Amino acid sequence: MDEVTQEFLIESNELLDQLDRDLVDLEKDTGSKELLARIFRAIHTIKGTSGTLGFPKLESVAHVGENVLSRMRDGKLVLNAEITSALLNMIDAIRKILRTVESSGREGDPELADVIRALTELRDEGEKAPEPKPSTSGEMAEPVEAKNLGAILIERHAISPDAVEAARDQQMQGDPRRIGEILVHHGAAEPKMVLEALQEQATQMASAASTIRVDVNLLDRVMNLVGELVLARNQILQFTSTQKDASFLSTAQRLNLITTELQEGVMKTRMQPIGNVWNKFPRIVRDLALNCGKQVQLEMEGTETELDKTIIEAIKDPLTHIVRNSLDHGIETPAVRVSKGKPPAGRLRLRAFHEGGQVNIEISDDGAGIDLAKVKDKAIQRGLLSAQQTSKLSDREIMNLVFTPGFSTADQVSNVSGRGVGMDVVKTNIEKIGGTVDLGSSPAQGTTLRIKIPLTLAIIPALIVTSGSERFAIPQVSLLELVRLEGQEAEQGIEMIHGAPVHRLRGNLLPLVYLNRELRLEARQATRSDHGATVNIVVLQADGRPFGLVVDDINDTEEIVVKPLGKQLKGIACFAGATIMGDGQVALILDVLGLAQQAAVISEGKERSLAQAKTKTDDVTLKQDSWLVFRVGEQGRVAIPLPVVSRLEEFDSSAVEFSGNQPVVQYRGEIMPLVYVAEALQLVAAGRKHDRLQVVVYAEDGRSVGLVVEEILDIVEQQVAITRGQQSTRLLGSAVIQQHVTDLLNVPEIVAGLVPAKQDMPAWPEGKHAVH
Fold first, then answer.
1. Is the pTM of this model over 0.90?
2. What are the boundaries of each domain within the chain?
3. How far is CA 40 from CA 44, 65, 87, in A?
């Protein structure tokens, strides 16, 4: 495809996006001559260029639309919902043809008869008037400034559109003069106004000449290279700490400054206003409201808020689905709203703003709100939860059930929604880019969905800390302040309230989380006697609540390049990614929200509560598609759902002790009972002869149980079909995993039958710690 056609496709799609917005706006303000003139110019441009490039079908559909607009401009037709819909259908038809041209270079065989017939009938409803001349390739020979000059004069209300058309017709008949000269000669415009319009035109042309279009893939490659340059810069800066050569240090500092400026510049090239996504919503809202028989007023605030191009693309579909959901499920019909004392037209409000290095997006409506009783009934009806489980959920957790895959409160499936596909995808896509979704609703008052997302995903400022001889990066977006307690203050500055450590920070109680304990980097529990002479507290904020993270050392702040974790590690709530440090070592990036939830500093969301509602029933287990496969006995092949696995460990057989007849090991500050899976399944009674024991740690009800297996084989991502036989209750059934028949272990049943209850096990001595 030649460059001229490519440029035509880009410009035409931009014009069509603008036409969508302008037509919806014109429907609200039918008397706006400026909007009507802009719409007419856009269609005229597409028609003329398509004729020049040899796209007759595209030209014909644009031409009949231009005829309708011409009648409207002449005052012979008044815009209404029918005309707006017909013109929007024309825009859709043009957009479809453009996609075909882009993919094949040809127009194809689009179905245009219905669109053209509808527009022709609307045109004929107006009074008979001379038809506008069909577009010819000669029209494109018109000087660029002629069209632009006339548009500028119309926008300034200096002349009428008819005067410009008359001057253009005179040019087409062979008048060599410029359009401004013709207008002045006929007295249609004053010389002063023409000169001012020419000056504005020159400014616009200069501005247009100062910009270029760049392929997004090229920007992505440049961004990746900048990321690698930042890593190299960090390595050089770390190396400079051991050097004394003044010339080398100066050069390194210069490199640091240039890299920083380059990084900022490239980041700016990728930033786009969120209005680029929101611009399509006026038409979506208008079409859906018409389809659902509702009246909706759309308000948009903060359209200039900028985001990285990658983030913009990631949130486009989720935001569209949320808007559709608000119209279909949230806002009531005019009759229902009036009966409730509300205005007949509902209000849908989009708001975006920067806060704390993140972008906040709020989508709110003043509709009926979420019916919690209906949500609970649907959850029980679909088998997602039992009645007993739903009775224990808070209102917030019930509300978050709408994010469960396959969940929908719609009584009927429509072409808008009701299939149970969407809100779970919204949440998943937002969380993939490091964002969070929060849902709030008041009965009969409306629903608000809040999204928090990072500005960019590539390079972020972070605080580097050390804990348990390991380095970790904490995104600065979550950082509030740093607190250091020394000497007597360290001894007395940390108190215990209901068994939880807290620090009084400026009169407020700050809950503390010990990173060593949460990540189990050391087999000890931090108590008051363990604080030592110095305590480093990183004050963080998660879900709007502050807490203190106690670490061994605070190193420095640094720009880090975010690298994604592998699929085997993505499920770990404490980590958001990884980065390469200046010395070439890998450091994990802490997920502040996940860490706070694991430490119970803030309440966990619905999804984690349900995940920990455990595999007590077959329904929960059968939905798993991640499995840990291991060998038991000589040839037994067994699997358990990966989410129930806490850790994989290896012990010397000499570490096994006994509490009564129960084999146990000292494990991370507790006495952990062991279950020999081969013996439990009566496969073999020789599972205790190995020098090293491979153990799958299973966590339940606040304690750990070790499942001793012969060999851990693999982690498998696979949905399975379970065959139930006449097996023991300790097996859920069998399935084919990795082309091998594999038994599925019923872990809760085995643990309940072979391991004493927690209260019957000996407690760990106060103040004692296991040593590995």
1. no
2. 3-209, 216-273, 275-454, 460-607, 618-760
3. 6, 9, 11
